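Budget justification aside, the reviewers requested a transparent look at the raw inputs and outputs of the sequence design task funded under Objective 1. We therefore reproduce one unedited record. The lines immediately below are the structure tokens for a 1510-residue chain.
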């Protein structure tokens, strides 16, 4: 097949996840059929499949300036298939533990301990004591060394130390790769305890090398972060149990047991039991058992390491001869950093914190860290940041034993009591005449005593012996035998740390600037580059299963979200700095920066003035507001770019930059350094400050983009001139910090130096509002429903929030409305349950709607123990309705009732549900209506949207007075839900869609706030016209202008009174003719499509009359609802009333909820139910904020139920920085965390999207995913794909004809030209057979390949009417939630599997196609991947050469059964298919040229000719 040069060269750029970056290139064009043509090509993309897509293809000015030279070498590029096969390790693996070697029981190789030792010594650094090469560990992990060799042959008694450390190394690597680490333990659960015993005693039995200590420590960190695994939890939780306190000093132990009577009782019981066991064989004293030695031993080792570590200049210790601080070994430094990480993790979870905190205080670990030489060492920056994070958790406001969150007043009270005890001790034991400073301290007030300077002044003169007496023996703050206690400075610091006032985290957050500055933007310890490998730790909080309190939850998310936003801003800054090409103007006498380049998102600043600085508010030190004017000129910009700048509006965030480009000499010095300079240094960026837009004015001072109402619509005019003045609000906290620094250092006022203004895309620039919402929550008392509190934080019974555990709130009778199609459907939905029918429908057999009364739930005492759990921590549920809701022995009372006649007009009839819900979907509807938490896992194609819509419909029917908040991640999903909800029996006037995506809603009506208000006003006029007509018919005074108020009187005086008289008259007569005779509104209903009263049956006609009255009642009820819009004259008041009172279902995205929380609270927005779709794709914090959009009522949350629908087996939330994904787990969703915790969930178990054969590629990830009848019977699913032998195939492209395989012009910008060419040729083949372009989607796993595919399609297909563009060319990540009939998928990678190794991405990739899936990749690479084996077992069972069915069949005329593969032609070479496509194109053109009777005929004949040629 002909090849083209794709986007080979390029520049690194914004990226996220793997496959990040951008690239550009020029290449040769490819003509039809793969023939080469001359031309230029360009490929650009961002990020991995998680990227945000390419920017508009706009020329951005001159070439970029030279940027930092990257030394990055991607790991995957070093592990080619040939290298792996040729590697001695691969050969050893193939011989000893490969699948082939283990397949035969007879010839299976015996386990060789010497081999394990040899591999450990030679490949894993055991012999040299050095960190092993990452590629060697990767190779062993990929070869399933752990699963097939180490673990099956592990024996706790005989296994060598090398064997144990090798297992720990591979598990650490699995965590680094983010794949399942503990799965293999399930194969031999009996060996788990022995293995962990070897781990926790390893340090005692053998002196470990520095590298081994780091491996051991990292394994311990991972174990404590995996407590959801029962194997791990059972072994590691005892290590932080009461046995820890055997290592505590006697004085501190006595204090702790005195304050905790329950623990003292347990302590005595354990001691008594141990005393009885003394003298028995194998008895080990309590103080020598692993719980008493493991963690205390680690702490002792760490303290010794800190004590002996090299010190920097000026510390008095040994220095290098040249005066520099001695360099610290990499492993020693990493050990210290990892140990602080471990301690932080232990304090960040209540089960591990409860008893550990006291031991850490007794050992004064925090003070030792702060006093160590390492924290002052040039290499100790990260260590210092980790210690700061550790210190925050040491002082976290929580009761360590009860888990109760402590408010600021509680913390202050406890601290003052502690200070008073110190004063009493000083007063009693330290005489005034000998120690006047201490005596004075004893009589001072608490506020004075807690001041650090005052404390230091009092204890400073004390001798070492006196300090030991006070600190060690009297206050019992540290052990007297600790070697650190020989240092007076250490003892003083211990006392100061214990008694000085601690700063509350809310105080820190409230004065923290929200905009990123230059100080944090390029701090690799806080905002790592995208090429994070996972080998080092970071100064970041982690999101895991459990949180200490809601404040802890918010604090972690706040910090991570802020840093993620900082990373995104940094990427935009890097892009702008490359483009603007700043330099000093040589023609100016004074130094002036000029910009040779141009950036779409930045403009030079023509003027900057601070116009107002408001005085601080009471109790604050920062200004109340700082306002500035920024002047820019849009002269010289293209119209579209100028329009973008003119669209800047209120609340947009801009960035003020100061750029001072380095001189040539400075550049040379930067490049001569060992570490490459950053783009900030190369461009000369010195200052970054953020600002929020207040208003923008044109040259004449006219307001632009005003949404405040100051500019009336009739007064609006286009902006005048090209000069714009933007009034902005600066960050007051940052301004105060800058002014303080200016006053202290007397430097240059940085606010006079700004010379460049940068904007960002509005959708990517909302971080400030979200951070403000989180900060507001941290300053409030977080109130969640009591049934959700413990489950949310990760404690207690995981099922406690389920409705089955809330019997007092259980709703026994539910009107399911149209959920069931018929009685048989209802019986199918409750398999095994006994049904007691009550037929009140008036029909011979029960028909819908149905009202079901369920048996009462047992009380918690009657219910017995907790739900049985699986080994993996998940509840043992099978996803069936019977298992969750209705025991087979219980009886359901089902009432079939006749719904009231809604009226005589067709629009009065409610729409009916056409979906035949499965039993699990019905249980989801039932659970969603009940109070409590409902989790619904929806595999691809199982009807998540239909289930969510039915839940809301039934909720509205059963609780018409309650309000529902609907949240989704994307606008597309929200619009899909909203569109389906419009088709149900929920009046449109009760539906409201908030946010910017409303414009994409595929409906004729406008469901935005303004659109709904206008609809209500229009409806009001329509209804009042009907009232006037009725008034005229009833002979009421004419000429009156009705309003909603007068219409209400008309209802009472003229409609209701006549109805009551009519009811009395017909009740007295009861003849068939009397209803028609007495009905007072016959004239009004004369336009009904059918005759209302037939005069044959009194009962039937009376029901018709009642239906007519219901129609009238609804009409006047609507008028009453319109009354508020009539009285409120301002549009804003009407909009607010609609949102807070009128709407029953309010829909928005999670981002909109976070942005507008303040507004919702100010308007007293309320809701009773929260329904969240796409829950597994929403960040933790963006799931939490929608639960708190309303003020609590009487200190309690109004929220009654939370329904979360998602799929944790598909891709998680989007996080662009890999470090925040892998290290901090920011991509964890609340939905996934609940599942990991073991919260019961319902898993939809029948898919109706794809052919059953296609579903087999991903249904192994789910419990019991079956198929709906439609995919088994409908012709489109049972017929074969025209021209193809199979409905899915893996097509082995290998390295392509040129042997190049994947390429990587810049880091993570992966491309594969051979796959792109082959895929596009298959697309052309499909189009020639008549496949609609709209039915074909082209997907890939990397943005680089997406850019290349688009380039090839543009050259070969876009302008050719025979082909055109496919429906979409996208990455797998971006295509989640979408589907198409046929999918062509390029896997790109040929050297390493890459991020497709994540089974969640694999599930998304395999589940996008309904009828046909054709995958292009390297079979040998993916076949050996352990995580992908269940899918590739099916894929590789078919030929890996493209199998065609060359019988002349076309898309419109293919009747061949799916399984009929009678004639198959295997494409031996991509050029064969390219040649056939070219011949078919020629035949098509010839056939079309011979037909002159219309395009349709030409198309049909051409298609037949093309198909025949193929």
């Amino acid at each position: 097949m002909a090849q083209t040069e794709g986007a080979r060269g390029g520049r690194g750029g914004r990226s996220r996840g793997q496959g990040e970056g951008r690239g550009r290139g020029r290449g040769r064009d490819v003509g039809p059929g793969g023939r080469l043509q001359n031309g230029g090509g360009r490929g650009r993309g961002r990020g991995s499949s998680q990227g945000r897509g390419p920017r508009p293809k706009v020329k951005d000015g001159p070439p970029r300036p030279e940027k930092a030279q990257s030394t990055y070498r991607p790991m995957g590029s070093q592990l080619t298939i040939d290298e792996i096969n040729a590697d001695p390790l691969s050969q050893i693996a193939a011989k000893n533990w490969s699948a082939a070697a283990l397949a035969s029981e007879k010839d299976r190789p015996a386990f060789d301990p010497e081999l394990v030792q040899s591999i450990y010594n030679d490949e894993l650094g055991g012999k040299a004591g050095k960190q092993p090469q990452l590629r060697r560990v990767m190779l062993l992990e990929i070869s399933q060394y752990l699963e097939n060799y180490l673990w099956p042959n592990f024996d706790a008694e005989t296994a060598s130390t090398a064997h144990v450390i090798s297992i720990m190394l591979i598990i650490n690597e699995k965590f680094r790769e983010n794949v399942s680490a503990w799965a293999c333990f399930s194969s031999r659960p009996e060996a788990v305890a022995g293995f962990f015993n070897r781990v926790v005693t390893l340090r005692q039995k053998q002196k470990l090398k520095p590298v081994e200590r780091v491996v051991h420590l990292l394994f311990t960190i991972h174990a404590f972060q995996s407590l959801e695994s029962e194997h791990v939890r059972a072994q590691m939780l005892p290590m932080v149990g009461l046995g820890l306190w055997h290592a505590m000093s006697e004085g501190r132990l006595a204090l702790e047991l005195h304050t905790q009577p329950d623990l003292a009782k347990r302590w005595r019981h354990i001691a008594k039991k141990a005393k009885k066991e003394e003298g028995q064989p194998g008895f080990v004293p309590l103080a020598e058992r692993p719980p008493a030695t493991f963690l205390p031993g680690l702490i002792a080792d760490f303290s010794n390491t800190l004590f002996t570590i090299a010190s920097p200049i000026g510390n008095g210790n040994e220095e290098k001869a040249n005066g520099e601080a001695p360099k610290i070994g990499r492993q020693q430094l990493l050990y210290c950093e990892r140990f602080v990480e471990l301690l932080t993790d232990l304090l960040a979870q209540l089960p591990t914190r409860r008893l550990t905190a006291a031991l850490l205080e007794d050992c004064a670990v925090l003070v030792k860290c702060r006093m160590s030489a390492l924290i002052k060492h040039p290499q100790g920056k990260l260590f210092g940041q980790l210690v700061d994070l550790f210190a925050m958790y040491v002082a976290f406001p929580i009761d360590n034993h009860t888990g109760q969150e402590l408010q600021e007043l509680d913390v202050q009270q406890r601290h003052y009591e502690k200070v008073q005890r110190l004063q009493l001790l000083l007063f009693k034991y330290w005489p005034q005449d000998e120690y006047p400073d201490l005596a004075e301290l004893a009589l001072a007030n608490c506020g004075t005593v807690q001041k650090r300077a005052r404390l230091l002044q009092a204890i400073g003169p004390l001798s070492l012996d006196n300090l030991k007496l006070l600190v060690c023996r009297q206050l019992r703050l540290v052990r007297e035998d600790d070697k650190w206690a020989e240092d007076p400075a250490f003892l003083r610091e211990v006392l100061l740390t214990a008694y000085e006032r601690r700063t509350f985290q809310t105080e820190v957050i409230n004065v923290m600037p929200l905009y990123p500055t230059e100080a944090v933007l390029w701090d690799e310890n806080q905002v790592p580059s995208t090429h994070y490998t996972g080998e080092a730790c970071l100064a970041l909080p982690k999101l895991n299963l459990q949180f200490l309190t809601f404040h802890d939850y918010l604090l972690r998310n706040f910090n991570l979200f802020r840093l993620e936003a900082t990373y995104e801003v940094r990427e935009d800054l890097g892009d702008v700095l490359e483009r603007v090409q700043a330099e000093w103007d040589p023609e100016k006498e004074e130094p002036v920066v000029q910009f040779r380049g141009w950036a779409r998102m930045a403009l030079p600043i023509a003027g900057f003035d601070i116009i107002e600085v408001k005085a601080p508010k009471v109790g604050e030190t920062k200004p109340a507001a700082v306002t500035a004017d920024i002047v820019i000129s849009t002269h010289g910009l293209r119209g579209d770019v100028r329009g973008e700048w003119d669209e800047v509006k209120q609340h947009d965030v801009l960035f003020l930059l100061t750029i001072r480009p380095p001189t040539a000499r400075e550049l040379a010095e930067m490049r001569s350094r060992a570490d490459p300079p950053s783009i900030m240094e190369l461009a000369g960026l010195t200052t970054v400050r953020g600002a929020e837009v207040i208003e923008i004015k044109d040259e004449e001072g006219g307001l632009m983009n005003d949404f405040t109402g100051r500019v009336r619509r009739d007064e609006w005019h286009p902006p005048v001139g090209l000069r714009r003045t933007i009034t902005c609000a600066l960050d007051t906290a940052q301004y105060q910090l800058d002014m303080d620094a200016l006053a202290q250092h007397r430097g240059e006022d940085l606010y006079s130096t700004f010379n460049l203004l940068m904007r960002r895309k509005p959708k990517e620039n909302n971080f400030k509002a979200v951070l403000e919402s989180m900060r507001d929550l941290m300053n409030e008392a977080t109130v969640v429903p009591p049934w959700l509190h413990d489950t949310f934080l990760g404690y207690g019974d995981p099922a406690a929030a389920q409705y089955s555990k809330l019997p007092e709130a259980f709703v026994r009778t539910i009107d399911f409305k149209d959920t069931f199609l018929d009685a048989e459907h209802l019986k199918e939905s409750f398999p095994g349950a006994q049904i007691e029918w009550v037929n009140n429908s008036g029909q011979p057999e029960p028909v819908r709607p149905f009202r079901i009364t369920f048996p009462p739930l047992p009380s918690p005492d009657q219910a017995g123990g907790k739900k049985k759990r699986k080994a993996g921590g998940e509840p043992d549920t099978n996803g069936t309705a019977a298992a969750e809701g209705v025991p087979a022995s219980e009886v359901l009372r089902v009432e079939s009732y006749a719904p009231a006649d809604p009226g005589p007009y067709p629009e009065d009839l409610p729409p009916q549900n056409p979906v035949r819900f499965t039993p699990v979907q019905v249980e989801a509807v039932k659970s969603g209506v009940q109070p409590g938490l409902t989790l619904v896992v929806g595999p691809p194609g199982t009807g998540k949207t239909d289930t969510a819509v039915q839940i809301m419909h039934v909720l509205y029917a059963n609780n018409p007075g309650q309000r529902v908040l609907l949240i989704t991640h994307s606008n597309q999903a929200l619009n899909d839900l909203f569109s389906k909800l419009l088709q149900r029996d929920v009046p449109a006037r009760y539906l409201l869609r908030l946010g910017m995506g409303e414009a994409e809603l595929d409906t004729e009506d406008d469901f935005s706030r303004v659109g709904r208000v206008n609809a209500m006003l229009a409806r009001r006029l329509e209804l009042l016209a009907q009232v006037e007509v009725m008034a005229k018919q009833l002979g009421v005074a004419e000429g009156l202008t009705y309003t909603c108020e007068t219409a209400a009187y008309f209802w009472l005086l003229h409609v209701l009174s006549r109805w009551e008289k009519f009811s009395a008259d017909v009740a007295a007569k009861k003849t068939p003719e009397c209803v028609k005779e007495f009905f007072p509104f016959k004239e009004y209903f004369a336009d009904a499509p059918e005759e209302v009263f037939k005069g044959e049956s009194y009962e039937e006609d009376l029901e018709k009359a009642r239906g007519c009255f219901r129609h009238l009642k609804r009409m006047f009820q609507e008028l009453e609802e319109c009354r508020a819009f009539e009285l409120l004259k301002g549009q804003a008041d009407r909009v607010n009333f609609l949102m807070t009172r009128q709407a029953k279902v309010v829909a928005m995205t999670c981002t909109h909820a976070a942005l507008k929380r303040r507004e919702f609270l100010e308007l007293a927005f309320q809701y009773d139910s929260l329904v969240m779709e796409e829950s597994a794709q929403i960040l933790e914090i963006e799931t939490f904020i929608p639960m708190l959009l309303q003020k609590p009522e009487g200190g309690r949350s109004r929220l009654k139920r939370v329904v979360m629908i998602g799929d944790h087996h598909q891709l998680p939330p989007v996080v662009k920085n890999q470090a925040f994904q892998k290290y901090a787990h920011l991509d964890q969703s609340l939905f996934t965390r609940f599942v990991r915790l073991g919260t019961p969930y319902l898993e939809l178990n029948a898919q109706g999207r794809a052919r059953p054969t296609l579903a087999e590629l991903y249904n192994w990830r789910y419990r019991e995913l079956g198929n709906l009848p439609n995919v088994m019977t409908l012709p489109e699913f049972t017929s074969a794909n025209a021209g193809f032998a199979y409905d899915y195939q893996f097509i082995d492209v290998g390295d392509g004809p040129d042997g190049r395989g994947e390429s990587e012009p810049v880091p993570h910008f992966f491309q594969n030209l051979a796959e792109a060419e082959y895929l596009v040729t298959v697309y052309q083949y499909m189009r020639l057979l008549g496949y609609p372009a709209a039915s074909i989607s082209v997907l890939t796993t990397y943005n680089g390949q997406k850019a290349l595919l688009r380039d090839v399609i543009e050259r070969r297909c876009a302008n050719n009417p025979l082909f055109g563009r496919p429906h979409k060319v996208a990455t797998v990540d971006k295509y989640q939630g979408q589907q198409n009939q046929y999918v062509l998928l390029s896997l790109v990678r040929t050297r390493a599997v890459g991020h497709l190794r994540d089974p969640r991405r694999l599930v998304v990739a395999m589940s996008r196609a309904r009828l046909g899936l054709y995958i292009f990749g390297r079979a040998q690479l993916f076949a050996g991947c352990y995580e992908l084996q269940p899918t590739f077992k099916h894929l590789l069972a078919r030929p890996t050469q493209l199998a065609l069915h060359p019988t002349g069949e076309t898309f419109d005329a293919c009747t061949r059964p799916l399984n009929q593969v009678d004639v198959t032609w295997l494409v031996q070479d991509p050029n064969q298919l390219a040649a056939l496509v070219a011949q078919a194109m020629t035949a098509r053109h010839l056939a079309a040229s011979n037909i002159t009777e219309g395009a349709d005929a030409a198309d049909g004949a051409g298609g037949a000719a093309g198909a025949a040629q193929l």
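Residues 907 and 1135 are 27 Å apart (CA to CA). The longest helix spans residues 550-580. Computational costs for records of this kind are itemized in the attached budget.
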